[in-house]
Amino acid sequence: MLVLNEKVPEKVILVEEPEIAELISKYMTTVKSVKRRGYSVYIGIYGGSPIAIASHGVGGPSLALILEELIQYGARIVLRYGTAGATECSNVGKYLIPVGVSHHVYSSLYQRSRGDTSLSLYPDLEMAYKLYSFLKQRRRNVIYGSVFQSDDFYAESHISSDDAVDMETGTLFLVSRLKKVRSASLVILANCRGRDWIDYEKLYETDAQLVLDFMSSFEGEAERI
Amino acid sequence: MLVLNEKVPEKVILVEEPEIAELISKYMTTVKSVKRRGYSVYIGIYGGSPIAIASHGVGGPSLALILEELIQYGARIVLRYGTAGATECSNVGKYLIPVGVSHHVYSSLYQRSRGDTSLSLYPDLEMAYKLYSFLKQRRRNVIYGSVFQSDDFYAESHISSDDAVDMETGTLFLVSRLKKVRSASLVILANCRGRDWIDYEKLYETDAQLVLDFMSSFEGEAERI
Amino acid sequence: MLVLNEKVPEKVILVEEPEIAELISKYMTTVKSVKRRGYSVYIGIYGGSPIAIASHGVGGPSLALILEELIQYGARIVLRYGTAGATECSNVGKYLIPVGVSHHVYSSLYQRSRGDTSLSLYPDLEMAYKLYSFLKQRRRNVIYGSVFQSDDFYAESHISSDDAVDMETGTLFLVSRLKKVRSASLVILANCRGRDWIDYEKLYETDAQLVLDFMSSFEGEAERI
Amino acid sequence: MLVLNEKVPEKVILVEEPEIAELISKYMTTVKSVKRRGYSVYIGIYGGSPIAIASHGVGGPSLALILEELIQYGARIVLRYGTAGATECSNVGKYLIPVGVSHHVYSSLYQRSRGDTSLSLYPDLEMAYKLYSFLKQRRRNVIYGSVFQSDDFYAESHISSDDAVDMETGTLFLVSRLKKVRSASLVILANCRGRDWIDYEKLYETDAQLVLDFMSSFEGEAERI
Amino acid sequence: MLVLNEKVPEKVILVEEPEIAELISKYMTTVKSVKRRGYSVYIGIYGGSPIAIASHGVGGPSLALILEELIQYGARIVLRYGTAGATECSNVGKYLIPVGVSHHVYSSLYQRSRGDTSLSLYPDLEMAYKLYSFLKQRRRNVIYGSVFQSDDFYAESHISSDDAVDMETGTLFLVSRLKKVRSASLVILANCRGRDWIDYEKLYETDAQLVLDFMSSFEGEAERI
Amino acid sequence: MLVLNEKVPEKVILVEEPEIAELISKYMTTVKSVKRRGYSVYIGIYGGSPIAIASHGVGGPSLALILEELIQYGARIVLRYGTAGATECSNVGKYLIPVGVSHHVYSSLYQRSRGDTSLSLYPDLEMAYKLYSFLKQRRRNVIYGSVFQSDDFYAESHISSDDAVDMETGTLFLVSRLKKVRSASLVILANCRGRDWIDYEKLYETDAQLVLDFMSSFEGEAERI
Fold first, then answer.
1. HSE value, Cβ hemisphere, 13 Å, CA-based, for A205
2. CA geometry: angle at E99 spanning E95 and E101, to 5°?
3. Can you tell me where the transmembrane regions are (chains A, B, C, D, E, F) (predicted)?
4. Between 20 and 30 A from E28 (CA), which of A8, A180, B33, E181?
5. Model confidence band, residue A225 (pLDDT cutoffs 50, 70, 90)
6. How far is residue A70's CA from residue A55's CA, in Å, rounded to a whole number?
7. Which domains does chain E have, with CATH numbers?
8. What is the DSSP track for E157-174?
9. pLDDT tens across D173-219, in order?
10. Alpha carbon distance B197, B191 (integer Å)
């Protein structure tokens, strides 16, 4: 393994940047941290539950590398907590829980599945719905819908078929499905088509504990295939 | 419109064959029925709620035709209630609620979206989860997972990347997403890779009212995009 | 088999809807009929020749299912007799005999052949030409040319590269070629780009016997590969 | 135009090599000949009918160049008279009249049509059937069926889905269809999967007049679209 | 082999037409010549070095056939010396050395590699750079850049993503790479988007010896993979 | 811009990880450094020449983001200096200069160019050859050849058509070509099909100055298109 070489908790929160991983890790009791090849991983305890927080970098290929290692070392329930660009400007500032992922037929997702099939990309139904319900009850402005997985931050102005554009949710769902782990994605709609960025770091600070609360308390009960 | 030319209820149950449409319609008070071009549509009342039951025939192209007309005339919440083939033989006899849909990159789904994008295919999160929860509480053997949309009943023995194979759920999700209506799919795993068929008609008889109960009581509350 | 479980005649006429199958069956002596899963099949005698008339439903996936079963039970010479939409409005009301079939590269036809090849789609040369000649001699307004196989009735307004649009001729030719049976297609140009429908049922009534005459008398003589 | 710059007859026979063009031209009264950029074109009279004989070189791109110029200067009825490799060794030595053309989805045919459609490739029904019938009556061993258009002579050992492999019939049919000229193809099955070549030049000598007879007498009567 | 059946020199110059092969061959001492199936091959000596000059016809499929045979019989260092159309009109009359080759994803190049990979197409780095440097020192107007390989001379007006359009450089690089021989391409920008042709034959006359000089003196020294 | 918001030097060295960027930056006089969103950028002076060193993270999407910003702020000559996996184990430890880049037809490269064309991917001929020659003269073990751009580090065991596998060179060449900047790639063959890693950090330490020497002295002289 390029980055990890030790057991990690079953529950993992993936974030985009080392800075955010560090920010969220401050709300838990960190037991160990790894910084290697641009990735930051914090292993700790929150609410009595072992949890890891890891940065995944930019894009599907970068996320796939660290996610594969995390699963190899024990991850079973994975939440991406990041940002995405809204297609509708009125949604900026809301949380979006992706239920489906569109993508270019020709994309970075191909290499992991190959063949003539476009594999389904979806969150764990129970985890996604309970996360939705959890945030709703806590009066967060949360909606669900569809994201487009982009492979190129500076070449995505043509994308508009979906509610939001992000660069990693499809890869998260694909690897999770192939490795049979539960996953969901929670993205802050941090800008509108690349403009009008909100101060999303503040949101991370406000809600870090909320997300840690959800993860520490979530136990998948559903029998899935 | 080729089949319909009148208003239909907001809630629609789509089934595969005219025979099943007729079977389920017997449990509601039918107000009107249409039989045209191989399709059967029953419009009626169940538990005080107006509901339509329509047959969709075999395959995505056949379902798309009638679904498009139903939406045109008022359908807003659509449930496919049908059969699928299980990939794992131990799942035969269970209900499956599809959360994602795989498909050949080259498939009948292409024509409706075209372009270079593989559009996300997903159920309404709230409807799918509440249906799952509803059936679970009534002790039905229900699981959720991924289906593969097949375009050719006698050429699908190679399909095994998913939990089940059906011929219409992807088209249901695609048209629903483009027309912005809520939909979910509930399939009986009626055989295992084309063999060992169960007597699924009996299951329709046993559970017709249950499904009508769900549909008559379901009110989508979630704010979706 | 889902629909059939008995021997059928070598000669089969495929029509779109149960209603048309019934209409044409009235001109022959019907020996047996099957109605199952939305399909209607009539087995009978015309002019001393055993012939089956079967409905195929909407779209390639639906036609493939019944055609596969018919061939499995004995069909060797198959004629699709149906309707198509003309690209040129001046051709509405004419008969068209398709010699070639265009289709989206990404279409329902893929699943049966798979791989990296676009398989040739063509009628039996002798059957197609003799049908053309037969109708010409009987002063029908008949032409030959190219059809586009559509996979979605309500998403085909962009199709214009061919003389007509239908939803099943390509699948007929593909399955026929793979199973080595002779086939041809005869379509009434019943509308122009979805508008200006003619009363094609009347045409079926007028010409049902003509088509039965051709089928009962046609004996493929050519040595094909 | 790169090769031609004068009117040519309506009827054209396309052959593979300059040597064969010269061989066949000897059976007609040649009025004019052009040799440029590797192509040989003979313009003459046979049986009172003006006819051109042109070599097309190896492969679709080479045939397209000269065919486009011939049509630009007046060609309306085009016959390819060449060789192909049989898939079944028992067919070596026979004539094949292609009714359909398979090809790699990714092939040289794409550039002329582009877009998301696989265009139908087919001969003129009347011309193909009458040629078949003409040769049959003259006791030639002729069959009809499907060819695969290859783009690479030394990389086609994997091709076996069709009755024969050639390198130009698909391009002939594609350009003919787009330019609305009648065409057919007549190929000598000169080898079996690249081996066991027959002395096909002898066959050209024996049958050159027969083919010229057909071309000089053929008048397309059918109304096509 | 269809064309050759004897040893050829390690160094080969490929040109488009038999006429040009003949023209250049006049500057060396020709030992032997072959004319078969439209190809002309001259085997000779220049500056003490054995060299072959061969025509390749129009398009990738035509070039692949003769190149494959040349390599089979000993060719190891191959230069295409031909013409291409410039995208920028101000470049007409210059020499272009292609470093990369664009092409339609769907093209004649596919058949030789197949599979899901777009294989790299590139010249031998040392040969291409030394050719560039050699011509520069002799004050030729030479540049390097990217060509688009076209499969259809009369259907390429849409191509503009590259510096020039030719019909064979991609196939040269592909076959060279698969057979592990060194190759480069040197094209005269003989027209601008199909118009304004220069008298390129004159250029061949002027520079034939220069190109023969380069080939006779070039010895690949680099260790390549 | 997400990472940068100031002018950078024309010459940039891109490396994989923040650690390597820091390591190499120690050999120059650093004027300024930026650490944001996982990227590290050092702006400095070496041998009198302004040079930037930037980390690009894992995969094409990650490299594209920072490269786009660097070019936006002034980069014109870009060298990727990183690692790749060798296909042939005997090449481990050598330097490879990629001349061509293979990739899955379906890959992350698609989004930037889109359309039906596979764009050429190539280094600047002069820069690549002079780098080769520079290293050769300094007795480094350097070869040139072809790399495969991978989109998924843990799903690339099937790749073997090329000399090495890396995750960013194709994106570097694609963006460089579209933005018209010169680029080349120099990769250490650090492992063999994912195993037998060498201690490549030591190599970076040994050769950092050599690479800085090349970059500070290189002046592109060639007229390119």
1. 5
2. 105
3. none
4. E181
5. low
6. 11
7. 11-217 (3.40.50.1580)
8. TT--SSSEEESSHHHHHH
9. 999 999 999 999 999 999 998 888 999 999 999 999 999 999 999 98
10. 4
- Exposure of B199 by Cβ count < 10 A (0-12 exposed, 13-18 middle, 19+ buried)? exposed
**Does pLDDT of B222 surpass 70?**
yes
CA B175/CA B156 separation, integer angstroms: 23
- Counting every residue written for chain F, the total comes to 225
User: Largest alpha-carbon pair distance within chain A?
Assistant: 46
CA separation for the pair A114, F202 (Å, rounded): 36
pTM over 0.95, yes/no: yes
Q: How many CA atoms lie within 13 A of B50 on its CB side?
A: 10
In this predicted complex, what is the ipTM?
A: 0.96
Helix (H) / strand (E) element for D215: namely helix D200-217
Please report the DSSP string for E109-140 in residue order. THHHH-TTEE------HHHHHHHHHHHHHTT-
Cβ count near E27 (within 10 Å): 17
Q: Identify the band that residue E221 occupies on the pLDDT scale cut at 50, 70 and 90.
A: confident
Dig out the tokens for D117 from the structure.
């459609």
Give tens-digit pLDDT for E128-174: 999 999 999 999 999 999 999 999 999 999 999 999 999 999 999 99
The three-state secondary structure class of D113 is helix
Please determine, for residue E104, whether its predicted confidence score (pLDDT) is greater than 70: yes
C-alpha distances out from residue F179 to E93, F57, F60, F77, F78, Å:
26, 21, 16, 11, 12
In order of A134, D125, F167, F169, the CA distances from F53 in angstroms are 45, 67, 19, 16
| Residue E111 in contact with partner chain D when CB distance is under 8 A | yes
Cα of E83 to nearest chain D Cα, Å: 12
**D120 close contact with C: CB closer than 8 A:** yes
- For residue E43, give Cα distances in angstroms to A103, B110, E3, E82, F125: 54, 54, 14, 19, 31
CB-CB: which of A104, A121, A125 is closest to B117?
A104
CB D184 within 8 A of CB D127: yes
Task: Please report residues of D whose CB lies closer than 8 A to that of E60.
Answer: 59, 61, 108, 151-152
Residue E183 makes CB contacts below 8 A (sequence gap 6+) with: E77, E78, E79, E80, E123, E124, E127, E172, E173, E176
Alpha carbons E190 and E202: distance in angstroms, whole number: 11
CA distances from D38 to A175, D3, D16, D66, E56 (A): 55, 9, 11, 11, 9
Q: What is the mean pLDDT of residues B191-213?
A: 94
Q: How far apart are CA C126 and CA C76, in angstroms?
A: 14
| Contact yes or no for D19 and E2 at CB 8 A | no
% chain C with pLDDT above 90: 94
Tokens in use for B44?
A: 């009626």
